[in-house]
């Protein structure tokens, strides 16, 4: 009986986790709902097609559970989680992320139904299930920051060239968001949209630097804000920032090249050299063993 209960719990919790991971978030959900409303067609009898089961049951259930979990989460922890999700590109809402942690933790507790030593295993799996979304989120943030930092020098070059050619700063940002295929496109496009909606440029750029958390981006934003405050043209500060970022990228490449021999040392000593010794000394040792054998 306990086996059937465990199997049913696994099915329900796994279905909930998959539905949560695949559900759109934030503006994407609202856009999806609006497009579904526009694409809905009338049948010949004049009746509106019934929405699918997921739109009627699954999505409202997940939304309600996520909202209840958010009410139980401390405000400070919720604000920190929202900032981390923004750095990761908003893959989930805070409610969905919290619910994912709860679902994975409950999946880890399933071995409790077997009793005995499985209780300790269930506790370990529950802790791992709760911590797994945090690990995934940290990896996503690190990968996105690396991609952003790698594309930032090229974006700064294009931005400086565009401003030097006579374009406005907002138009240059829009040009960069159209040409650079990386998280730079998303973040710069978001900044341009915020400025167009009436937000101050300095606030939008500062929010961008805080959202990404890169020292190079903070230097760029501080240079632009200072130039606007002093009434100085943006062409020269942007060119200086672009040259500095290009130099820093070259220094990082040289540093990585200098670390390569050290990283190759351990595979050579523990993997390559033993194989070479076996190939070279193996036949000789076999010959000596035959000679010395009585």
Order of helices and strands: HHHHHHHHHHH
CATH fold assignment of the domain at 146-248? Receptor-associated Protein
Name the CATH architecture of the domain at 146-248.
Up-down Bundle
Q: Tell me, what is the CATH class of the domain at 146-248? A: Mainly Alpha
Strand content: under 5%
Give the low-pLDDT segments.
Answer: 38-46
* The named CATH superfamily of the domain at 146-248: Type II secretion system (T2SS), domain F
Largest beta-sheet characterization:
none
The proportion of residues forming helix, as a percent range, comes to over 70%
What is the number of helices? 11
The number of strands is 0
Distance between the termini: 66 Å
Structural class: mainly alpha
Structure summary:
The protein has eleven helices and no strands.
3D structure, described in words:
By secondary structure, the protein is an all-alpha fold. Among the domains are: 2-40 and 51-108, no CATH class; 146-248, Up-down Bundle (Receptor-associated Protein), CATH 1.20.81.30. It has eleven helices and no strands. The protein has helices spanning 2-22, 26-39, 53-72, 75-87, 94-108, 118-164, 169-179, 183-196, 201-212, 215-230, 235-292. The longest helix has 58 residues, at 235-292. The radius of gyration is 28 Å and the shape is flat. The model is unreliable at 38-46 (pLDDT under 50).
Give the SSE map.
Elements: H1 2-22, H2 26-39, H3 53-72, H4 75-87, H5 94-108, H6 118-164, H7 169-179, H8 183-196, H9 201-212, H10 215-230, H11 235-292
Helix pairs in contact: 1-5, 3-5, 5-6, 6-7, 6-11, 7-8, 8-9, 9-10, 10-11
